[in-house]
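ugh finaly. both done.
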Amino acid sequence: MAERDPRNRTGRRPLLRGLAAAVLAAGMLVASAGQGHGTGAATPAPGAQFTPLTAEVITKPTPFVATDGKTHISYELLTTSSLPSSTPLRLDRVDVRDARTHRVVGSLSGQALADAANPVGDPLPGADGDTPAPPGPTPTVIQGSQQWIIWLDLILDRGQRVPKVLEHHLAGAVLAPSGPSAFEETVQATRTSGRPPLNLGPPVRPGTWYASESCCGNTHHRRGLAPINGRFYVPQRFAIDWYRVGERGQTWEGDPAQLTSYLSYRQPVVASAGGRVVEVQDGLPDQTPPVTPPVPPIEDTVGNHVTVEVAPGRYLLYAHLTPGSLRVREGDRVEPGQVLGLIGNSGNSTTPHLHFQVMTTPEFFPTDSPPFTFRQFRVVGHVEPRIWDDNLGLQPTGVLPITPSPHDGPHRARYPLDREVLEF
């Protein structure tokens, strides 16, 4: 590694010309304004520096334990280049550290960083659901004035302490016309949530179920960035789509163009926890499978649904129910295990399934999506290829390619990972 300029110990050397010019101009104005009044130039706060990237966390990072027995912390870092549009930068490394000890608890570089970062507004790689997401280009180059999102999924080993505050250390180089200029910056100290995830009962009746699109990989739920009312949300971060699975591993049999061919269709949806019904929507028709429907108006996205308040700032959403099946009204009190309605295919849905998640508001848009766990279940397998709502009915047969999972067996107070098959 080349010896760094001693002036760069705090990362202050690699300033853009535009920024430097602005700083110089500002300093001249301050000095000019101060003439005759006995004041000097403003003194920066200790450690202050100009940073080529700004960063923002858009949720409260909340630890949860998944079926791998490890603690996960999944959230997003929204970064913006402060450089002119003509000047790109190369992001080489993102370290997430314990802000107290500065110990690294998660790191991204090379291909892993490329796969976990994308410009805001770019379509999700692999969004057709039929092919895996292509690897992101390396190195990760952010154009000047561009905004990128970095999808962070930290995994802590058993017994590893969860930091109370996380900090983010970014390293790379400004690709100026005169040549690359290295930078390092430590940004966005973020307190982790001390509120434990809700520990819930199942949202469906006993049986075998396929947990699709759950955390923490490159799924539409996990990486669904939504611009709503002037700010970004990830409203489905920990949502799970539930499909009923038969004895042969099938999710449908017969004609996949018929709703009644799907084993999930008209299965009872039950309350995972007691609470008060705060929102009910009914009357939207079921979509015809297996063709992806047109994107509905924002108010119809989750179709016929029931939302139940179960704790302060915690709401359970049961979505895509079949019309006329809802058995509760706003204001009703519900008990755990009480039937709320039947699984359908309403709203933005291609094949019948239950969309289930925890929300921080009574409304789906806008909301945040905190993690949750289920009190007990048994993992019985895993589906390796990504088979989700939009291509489930397009398979040659309705039988899922279920293989053994390293997490097979009973689980308590755990979150099911993506594409696990389990028994409630």
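ok and the 2nd:
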Amino acid sequence: MSNERAYNFSAGPSMLPLSVIEDAAANLANYKGCGESVMEMSHRSAEFKAILEDAEKNLRDIMNIPDNYKVMFIQGGGTLQFAMVPLNLLRKSGKADYIITGTWAKKAAKEAEKFGDIKIVASSEESTFTYIPKVKREDFRPDADYVHITFNNTIYGTHYPYIPDTGDIPLVADMSSCILSEEVDVSKFGLIYAGVQKNIAPSGIAIAIMREDLIGFAKDNVPTYLDYKIHADNGSTYNTPNCFSIYIAGEVFKYIKDMGGVAEMNRRDVAKAKKLYDFIDSSELYNCPVNKEDRSLMNVVFVTGDPDLDKKFVAEAKAANLHNLNGHRSIGGMRASIYNAMPEEGVDALIAFMKKFQEENK
């Protein structure tokens, strides 16, 4: 085995900042001299309470989260949120409107259909999700309880270039694969949720950022753990949380703060993505099928047009220490996930490999 770390382009679980991993390793057996690992620590201990409070405070700082929003760390990842959202937010008409921009958006809508009257107001499925549909306020049912969007589509490499205007209807956004890569106005959303395993921490939790006036409407038959109010009232410790994932999340928030905040992350992410897209667009071998204005900064998808050549590309890239460049199993091709933790040198190394592969396989 090589001691050299690879450039890991996995869509999730994905790269974490190396300094965070090394610091966690140094503190793994004995966290800051307290005699225990965070993995062994009571979630009721003073040490863990401090970790949790710091994590929330730093997230609020870097995302500019208003005081009337609760921050919750909930087990089950983004997928559990697909059910929690309708169970908590279908509170008046029982109707919700969904925009379908990829696999995860479809799964979220399908889950919601178990609990209410769900309408697909727009979809880009007819073009294999290569663009983000344009919607306006009139497209939504005026009595919908909420509108749901998937802000960045990991599999198809698309991202919303705008925030849909939903008027007074709460807007819910799954930001699992783009949170902390750009500044967002949290007050435009009723609820933002994100599985942490792409830009924040090891998998196992989702972060929910929810406007307080939307909390507390789960029906009596909703399982206790699936009621946001339980998590909000108990400060994310109703039961034993995933302490280690929350700890790493907190360390990543500190790292982002030290680097200059979300604005600086975005500046770097834009530079990395531009480099890669510019090369793909000018190359003779590769093609990115995504509509230019809807391209993701986080997940860059591309193909050669020959599935066998795509497979060869992925295999040779891995041998060159560029890991996990295969597209999602549902669509094939290639995908380079270049989250916050991917250094620019990783993108440079990928482009150099792509050039070499193009020369050898013209």
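summary for the 2nd one i guess: The radius of gyration is 21 Å.
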